[in-house]
Design a protein that fits this description.
A nine-stranded mixed beta sheet has the order 5-4-1-8-9-10-11-12-13, with helices on both faces. The chain has a four-stranded mixed beta sheet with strand order 3-2-6-7. Strand 11 and strand 12 form a beta hairpin. It is 29% helix and 29% strand. Helix 1 packs across helix 6 and helix 6 runs antiparallel to helix 7. The chain has one domain: 3-Layer(aba) Sandwich (UDP-N-acetylmuramoyl-L-alanine:D-glutamate ligase). The protein is globular and about 45 Å long. The chain is built from seven helices and 13 strands. The N and C termini lie far apart (34 Å). It is of the alpha/beta class.
Length: 268
């Protein structure tokens, strides 16, 4: 069975919406990408560091489908994100406190030695030293994919522009795609998935469009993790041999279902 390693954060998030609606959630790309991949029948191993507030993560039944061997629990404050969204579910501001996740890069470099992992996904966002991780993956001749977060995408893409073309798959939204195109000729990339919230998602391989998919219409409840759910689902369906059309359709549908749910509420 294919094993996917997912490098990123597992965090405690505060999501703020217009009208003073606020939710406290489990967050982080490592969590949501891995969960989505697992739900699509891919064995997923998130790579992250958590602190005191997430010390009981392993006993959370909502995560039973994950292999948590590379989630390190240490004493200290957890990684936390305070995110403010607009009425369309787009992030307008982010406040970050990385806590124990400041040591994620060294932890991830150790996890990369796991020979059982067939492919890696790297969530290219702070506090991870993205370029160091991607260069190590190249040295190890490992397959990998990448995604970004709007708040740091321009910085991360600029730093890693020499390495990103070696990724099997790049995931961006329409705003992040502009940063990507600023630094890299998109036609040189093996594959790029461009999402646009409730609008059409597009897959291009070496600059040629190979699939599109429109998410189902939903009543949005909580957008946290929706983009990561698209990523994890697409990776899992592709690994199982699905066509570009079927993988993209399944991915946008899963992302919509995530956004229509109440999200993974943080439990103390």
């Amino acid at each position: 069975m294919t094993v996917l390693g997912v490098i990123g954060n597992i965090s405690i998030d505060t999501a703020r919406y217009p009208g003073r609606r606020t939710h406290r959630l489990l967050g982080g790309a490592a969590l949501y990408v891995a969960l989505a991949a697992a739900r699509a029948d891919l064995l997923a191993r998130p790579v992250a560091i958590v602190g005191d507030g997430l010390a009981r993560l392993r006993s959370d039944p909502r995560l039973d489908g994950l292999d948590l061997r590379h989630v390190s629990t240490v004493r200290g404050l957890d990684c936390r994100f305070d995110l403010t969204y607009d009425r369309d579910g787009r992030v307008v501001s982010v406040h970050s406190d990385y806590g124990v996740a400041a040591d994620l890069t060294s932890h991830a470099l150790t996890a990369l030695e796991d020979a059982e992992v067939d492919q890696w996904h790297v969530a290219c966002r702070r506090p991870l030293d993205t370029i160091q991780i991607l260069r190590r993956l190249l040295e190890l001749a490992r397959q990998f994919s990448v995604d970004f977060h709007l708040a740091s995408a321009d910085e991360q893409i600029a730093a890693a522009q020499a390495v990103i073309p070696f990724a099997r798959m790049v995931f961006v939204n329409t705003a992040e795609q502009q940063f990507l195109a600023r630094h890299i000729d998109l036609a040189t990339l093996p594959a790029v998935v461009v999402s646009d919230g409730p609008h059409e998602a597009v897959l291009r391989r070496h600059g040629t469009q190979t699939a599109t998919a429109v998410p189902p219409t939903i009543s949005t409840r909580e957008v946290t993790g929706a983009g990561d759910t698209l990523t994890g689902t697409f990776l899992a369906l592709t690994a199982s041999g699905a066509s570009d059309h079927d993988a993209l359709t399944g991915a946008v549908t899963a992302a919509s279902h995530r956004a229509a749910s109440p999200g993974l509420r943080y439990r103390t």
